[in-house]
## 1
Amino acid sequence: MRSSTTKQPTAAEYLPLLFGFAVYQIGAAVAGLGVVEALADGPRTVGRLATITDTHPGHLRRLLRAATAAQLLRATDDDAFELTTLGRIFAKESPLQAAPLTAMHSAAPVWQAWGALEESVRTGRNAFELAHGSRLFDFLKGEPELAATFHDAMAAGSEVQLPAIISGFDFSRFRHAVDVGGGNGTHLAAILAANPRLRGTVFDTANGVVEAADVLESAGVADRCEVVSGSFFDSVPAAADAYLLKNILHDWNDDECRQILENCRAGLAPDGRIVVFTSVLSEGRGDEDPAEALGAAIFDIEMMVMTTGRERTLSEFEALFAAPGLRLDTATALPCPFLYYALEAVPVER
């Protein structure tokens, strides 16, 4: 009889699975309490940090020790702590903009929604609705503080993605771009600033575009851009040759996406294109960076938790585009984390 031994996973391998939630909340607390901001200029003692952050010194010390074990902080010889390179991702100036994203995900309603993930998988229902009795965007209407946190997180994500979009995608071929679901205009303002011959339209709900005129004015592009309010489920401004959908389709299910795409197709100029900026799920061939593929997959689960939508593979996007009479013409990988692409769709007859 042959005996065999199976190598057991190391703590470094299994801790993220068993206690990843705890590490996450340690980072969220360090950021949310103001510890990162207090350490921006250099090390501080526990006592000084407790005073600055108005926290319990004993409990703060324990949090700082845990954050040190998580490699977010480094202890010095004089009972002080300082930020590590990893810890600096929570700083305001960090290009990764981790602090606003962490603030959203550690908010109690979002945390509770993730707690309903298993039930969501069992039932096929949206986890946020299971946890709170209403969909995310309806819930936010009655929770202004959470809504502000949510919009800060979305803006932070855009700040990470926008440089990659501007540097990695050619907007110079277009005459007029409509940013569908463009919010306060930050995305389109940056695109217009980098493409001085391009004209634009920011299109979103009345609440979504409240600050858009000021953003466009501050960016110096207001003379080339109008602001239009409405619902992309009803119609979109007509006759543009580029309809931009940045991080929009993943919020909605296939039927809802079909309606959005049909409206964009109806407004499209004869030579126009619908451009979808989105993460794309791995097809499972094993040719992507594992961390990149995991990031995109986590985004897909987040869509299951937070919305009726999903992330999609390229083949799933092809099927999604086909329903309203479109075809995927070009897929351009962008220099941005988590398999981020610009997908260009055109009418089938072209």
## 2
Amino acid sequence: MESKSIASTPNAAAAADAWPAPPLPRLILEPQVRAALLEDLGRRGDITSDAIIPADTEARLALRARESGVLAGLDAARLAFELMDGRIHFEPAMADGTHLAPGDTIALIHGPARALLGAERTALNYLSHLSGIASATARIADTVRPYGTRVNCTRKTLPGLRSLQKYAVRVGGGSNHRYGLDDAVLIKDNHIAICGSLQAAVERARAHAGHLTALEVEVDTLAQLREALDLDVAVVLLDNMDTDTLRQAVALARGRAVTEASGGVSEASAASIAATGVNYIAIGALTHSVRALDIGLDSL
């Protein structure tokens, strides 16, 4: 039950937030960035730049922040330029996880002008979107940190972007919930309804998954929570509970299971939820509807 002791340690969240997120391997990044470039280039390439810019023209550009936030996605942006043309030089001025101020130079880039412009939108799409996720995560992580609570993302990710979006959450000081359906057992209301009972669902899951696979159960009421605790589940997902009910649920589960709150959590509500003593807060909006950070590419 090591995960319980870690999650319930008041300073665990702050210590984990201080640990830098390791970069994603190129092997994971390259197929996604290559596909994004191919999508943008279509069947003929950049017909605008090819028509009006001579092939031997060189250019110098700078990636700059236009608002405050947390940087994420620099490797994806760099790879977009490198895959477009190996002669492009990408010189980062800062690293993922850096807190940006308006006007900060993120990277200097120079090389063939046509290739630079061909990769521009793909690079900015990755950088702006992932920095938006990291920035939103950091704001909420800062809000809940005094309570020893951690912020989780969910599987509500944009198709094809899961590894990158979950990486950006880590950069912002958050944690990742399941990457996919094979990571851990999460028994939800529809599973219980189809199985016929919570007990049947838990017993079947344990028999199938094995002792090394984590088991979490979603509960909507205190009665369901008591049943789940009696079945000795490791984690309980407290879904759509008001703060008074959450506080009672946390008290019931203390010392018996790790607690995670979910359901319509926002930046505005995160602090009051964390104040109930819950170990984790799951927020789908971090990945499915976050606002992109404003980052631009300027000519030098």
## 3
Amino acid sequence: MDTKSIKTLLQNRVPTEIGSYKRSSVIILLYEENDEIYLILEKRALNLRHQPGDICLPGGKIEEGESPIEAAIRETVEELGIDKEDLEVYSAVDYLITPFSVIMYPFVAKIKELKDTYSKDEVDSLIKIPLKFLMENEPIYHEGELIVDRGEDFPYDLIRGGEGYKFSKCMYPTYFYVWEDEVVWGHTARIIYEFIKILKKNKPS
């Protein structure tokens, strides 16, 4: 291999992230009723193996060959028991890369009509939170340190300083919204918080 072939290889290659990530898409779902805008969230069915009873945004895993928006629409349609035509997709918003090797792609969409057709196998109930509440109330914030367990066999002898090496610390934020008797937290609250920040930043004065 010579430098010319290296140049050709790199010029024809599309960069991607380093590492292996799971990918999912979610929809920040807006609903308008009596001149009030709501965010529609799902309380996960209580019999699910993964995060039963947690409150989340509609959405799920991106399947092979799907784009993020295709996955977001498919999952939302399946979970809510609606037609694609019931959704008006506005835009993608900032995506979240978690320390747990997951990339989450959020989109904003409006649902034209809220029906009692959601999948009982996946969804326990729907939660309506007024957008006004989210705009006027900051979430509870907690910051914790992510701890890396390097194990007893970590080759400290290969790095300067050995076991005394000053590894970088990683602090991870967690947000909580408390609405009536419900708590929205974790990645869902983080995505909502970032969305609300966009609205506040661009809100007409």
